[in-house]
Design goal:
Layout: E1 7-13, E2 17-26, E3 29-39, E4 44-45, E5 48-49, H1 52-69, E6 77-84, E7 90-99, H2 109-119, E8 128-140, E9 144-146, E10 156-167, H3 168-180, E11 188-191, H4 192-200, H5 203-208, E12 210-215, E13 220-226, E14 229-236, H6 240-251, H7 255-263, H8 266-273, E15 278-282, E16 288-292, H9 293-315, E17 328-331, H10 340-348, E18 352-354, H11 374-391, H12 402-406, H13 409-413, H14 417-424
Parallel strand pairs: 1-6, 6-11, 12-17, 17-18
Antiparallel strand pairs: 1-2, 2-3, 4-5, 7-10, 8-9, 8-10, 12-13, 13-14, 15-16
Helix pairs in contact: 1-3, 4-11, 6-7, 6-9, 9-10, 11-14
Length: 426
């Protein structure tokens, strides 16, 4: 344990499970000291909270488990961060301008700050709420694109920001759950695929261009990063639960059995070894039948192909599709299915790897070495980063709780993705 208790709590309310991580940090060192994971039990559907009471019950259960593991450090948390998503999430590209008027006509920090600040001043409809705003890229004199314009000669600097927003009421539900569970202040929000980027991507992938795809139970989320800037993000309202449901309906089998064989390696073993071309299954009526393994694979393949076709349709017209030097990173529970990468490659024609929690600084506990935990680990790192950002800028102030100080400040400052990552030295 560290001498000074700097505690952060991260929360993910997913379609399949509720996750809580409690971390303790000292500078850039971050240790996970508590973890709680419970099934969502139907409280979330396609990223939407559909039962507030049930979700509060599940969250309290996960919080209690994490609190016990941490040695009851939950109440010492100086910051709570939460992943948010739903099918109504959207984004826009904000543009901001700064004129370079110093004698040398060199772009300084003031010009960068002014351009970025102006890019983020975008009006939203009254029913929309800002979630995150992240650097996309810079243009110098309208002709040269740059990710690092500092000290370059120019007359005009333009900054472009990827601004993520969603329906206010739906997003308020995420905050309300934590408030109902006993939190005294609004948590810091981060869009789930952006949390994934904090949780699973390396420096090289952030720089050279990567498509990140999180295949969750209820939805598939994606984000595109290039030269440390976020270029696109969004949600597709189909997830891996739809694969299990298709098999259950198509073959008249219990849904829990279908979930199990998709994730426990049964289909992979039978397909790759060829030892048994049929599975003995109990149908919904209770009778036993032999089902060809090929039938399971064919149904799963069709649904995954649909997901990736929709993803490619959303992104293939964009110019950045050819700038994905690191290909794709597939994460989330659906990435664990043994044919996911092959089908993705067939549809999107990109190389890929499976993304698990990653850090170049801090060791990943063995129990988190799984694509299912990429989001929650990224949420924790985001909270850690916000705390470090604040601490580096409060040298002239004294006392006070970090969360009290960062309220409002975090939303204003912590939206620049590149600077956040650089401060963490990932």
């Amino acid at each position: 344990m560290f001498k000074q208790h700097n505690i952060i709590t991260a929360v993910e309310l997913g379609t399949d499970k509720v996750c809580v991580l409690i971390g303790e940090y000292a500078g850039e060192e971050l240790n996970i000291i508590g973890k709680g994971v419970v099934p969502s039990g139907g409280a979330v559907v396609k990223g939407e909270i559909v039962s507030m009471d049930l979700m509060v019950e599940k969250l309290n259960e996960a919080l209690d488990t994490a609190d016990i593991q941490s040695g009851h450090e939950l109440n010492n948390s100086t910051m709570f961060t939460i992943a948010v998503t739903n099918c109504d999430m959207d984004s826009l590209l904000g543009e901001g301008t700064a004129f370079v008027q110093n004698e040398e006509h060199r772009i300084g920090e003031e010009e960068i700050y002014e351009a970025v600040s102006n890019a983020k001043v975008q009006s939203l409809n009254v029913d929309r709420r800002w979630v995150n705003s992240l650097d996309a890229y810079f243009m110098i004199d309208g002709v040269r694109r740059s990710s690092q314009p500092l000290n370059q000669r120019a007359n005009i600097l333009k900054a472009y920001s990827h601004i993520i927003h969603g329906n206010s009421n739906r997003l308020e539900n995420f905050s309300a759950i934590l408030l109902d569970a006993g939190l005294e202040y609004e948590p810091e929000m981060i869009f789930s695929p952006i949390a994934d980027m904090f949780g699973v991507l390396s420096d090289d992938e952030l720089e050279s261009g990567t498509l990140l795809v999180d295949i969750g139970a209820g939805t598939t989320e994606y984000a595109v990063v290039f030269q440390n800037g976020v270029l696109a993000s969004g949600v597709i309202a189909i997830g891996f639960e739809h694969v299990a449901n298709d098999i259950a309906v198509g073959l008249n089998l219990p849904i829990n059995f279908c979930r199990k064989i998709l994730t426990d390696g049964t289909l992979e073993k039978q397909t790759c070894t060829g030892e048994n071309l049929h599975l003995e299954c109990r149908t919904n009526s209770g009778s036993m039948r032999r089902v060809p393994v090929a039938s399971f694979n064919r149904i799963a393949d069709e649904r995954l192909r649909e997901i990736f076709d929709l993803l490619r349709g959303k992104l293939c017209k964009e110019s950045f599709w050819n700038n994905l030097g690191s290909g794709a990173v597939l994460t989330g529970g659906g990435a664990k299915y043994f044919k996911t990468r092959d089908i993705f490659h067939q549809v999107c024609d990109l190389p890929s790897r499976i993304g698990k929690p990653y850090s170049a600084i801090n060791a990943i506990p063995p129990e988190l070495d799984d694509p299912c935990y990429g989001t929650i680990y990224g949420v924790l790192r985001y909270g850690h980063l916000l705390a470090l950002q604040y601490e580096s800028r409060r040298k002239d102030s004294f006392g006070g709780n970090i969360r009290d100080k960062i309220s409002g400040f975090g939303d204003a400052f912590a939206r620049t993705f590149k600077n956040l990552r650089n401060n963490m030295k990932i």
